[in-house]
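Final report, Chapter 2: Outcomes

The project's central promise was a pipeline that accepts a single protein chain and returns its three-dimensional structure in a standardized token representation, suitable for archiving and comparison. That pipeline is now operational. To close this chapter, we reproduce one record exactly as it appears in the project archive, with the input sequence first and the structure output second.
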Amino acid sequence: MSGGPRRAVPVPEDAAPGISRRLASMLYEAILLFAVAFLATWLFQFAAGTMRIEGWRTHLLQLFLLAVFAAYFLWCWLRGGQTLAMKTWRIRLVARKDHGRVSPAAALLRFACSLVLVPSLVGIAWAYVDRDRQFLHDRLAGTLLLGVP
């Protein structure tokens, strides 16, 4: 049954890491974001001088959390292409055209697209039909997720 040694099938240079690995990274990212949101909310409450966030302050808190999340992702993606979860799961975000660093515009577009496409699961489901197995927000932003050896 063994029929001899198996030959390694060459993996394309721009092959995406497995979907299960990327989903595990997303789950880890969600846990990290919960901690970031907790700390940011506490700072917001401290600055607001009250623990009760009601009315217009609720919307202001939501905008503040959005800005904190954007700052976290953009800072990580623009510095080295990896968030803490991406480092743990050995995944790097690169520009599709040259596999170099992601531009600020592409990182911002990826963040904005993922705000809608990830929670709706459309962006994740897209990876099952995409020819390169990339998420839809990566396809739209011109970015690429690669495995890091």
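Archive annotation: The mean pLDDT is 89.
This record, like all others produced under the grant, will remain available to the consortium after the project formally closes.
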